[in-house]
Amino acid sequence: MCRLASILVRARNDGAYIGRTLRAIMEQECPVPFEVICCDDASTDGTDEIIRSFPGVVCLPRPEGEYRPGQRLNYMVSHCRGDIVVFNNADAVPLDRFWLRELIAPLTAGTADAVYGNQLPRPDAAYLVRKDNLRAFGDGREAAKWRFFFSLATSAVRRKDLVEHPFDERIRYSEDVEWAHRRPIRIAYAPEARVEHSHNYTVAELKKRFFGEGAADAVIFGDRPNLPREMVSAVLETLRDVRFLLAHPAGLAELPGAPLRRFVQRFYHWKGVRHAGKTA
Question: What is the pLDDT of residues 214-254, one digit of tens each?
Fold first, then answer.
């Protein structure tokens, strides 16, 4: 029996979304009472002020030192009281009043140890971003075929498990995947726990993200650099892009840039894996 859920919201320069996110959280209709805890990472766009304008939201002070995702998550967990911990990014906006109920249902029913929700693209999302969101989430069938998938952006876990198995504070990317993959646990997907969450990454942002994820994959899965395999993956993803855009003609303007984006993703993933191998 869950007595309390703790909703933890990390933020940094999320002024464009944090108000909508917190408003949607505070309006949740859920049989389990909940607390909301935020920690802002030195935002300069007024995010902290928006958070503090919501009565009842607990605002934790920023810890000293550089930002490490695992460290910040463990810090917030240590300051919450709930039997269930819900993680929700500041820019992941719940889309209805039943998001929380749907997200924690597999935990309260005892059928899962960790749950992740459905991330829908924003109205301004590029078509290829929409396609990637649909493949990763949607009805869940596609991601079920992948080697491993879990996303902390909107998710729920038992606090006891987080205390016994804290996040790795050394890695800078994929701390959620590392935590979920570290030992056998039951992971459930809650498609009706819907949030609006997507990013139109620039090429420079793709380079940084996929380099980081590659380095993390080397640690988590023991990946070794394999450039031919990465390039085959880029080609296959580009072919999927073509099929998707042909089915959505309004997005055809993105077709010329698709091969470059997929090449950048896989090439920098390879660089990240190789870098991790050299520094191990």
Answer: 999 999 999 999 999 999 999 999 999 999 999 999 999 99
Q: Is the dihedral of CA 270, 186, 176, 264 positive or negative?
A: positive
Contacts of 126 (CB under 8 A, 6+ apart): 200, 251, 254
Same domain, 110 and 164: yes
pTM of the model: 0.95
Q: Are residues 26 and 127 in the same domain?
A: yes
- Taking Cα atoms as reference points, which of 150, 170, 165 lies closest to residue 219? 170
Helices of type H across 79-174: 99-108, 127-136, 159-164
Place of tokens 């930002």: 67
- Strand ranges (E), 139-234: 154-158, 187-196
Which residues are paired to 194 by β-bridges? Answer: 118
Instruction: Specify whether 103 is located in the same domain as 239.
Output: no
- Residue 280: per-residue pLDDT: 64
Among residues 167, 196, 225, the one where a domain terminates is 196
119 and 75 within one domain:
yes
Q: CA nearest 71: which of 111, 39, 116?
A: 39
Domain with 218 in it: 203-279
Residues 234 and 267 in one domain: yes
248 contacts: CB under 8 Å, gap ≥ 6: 127
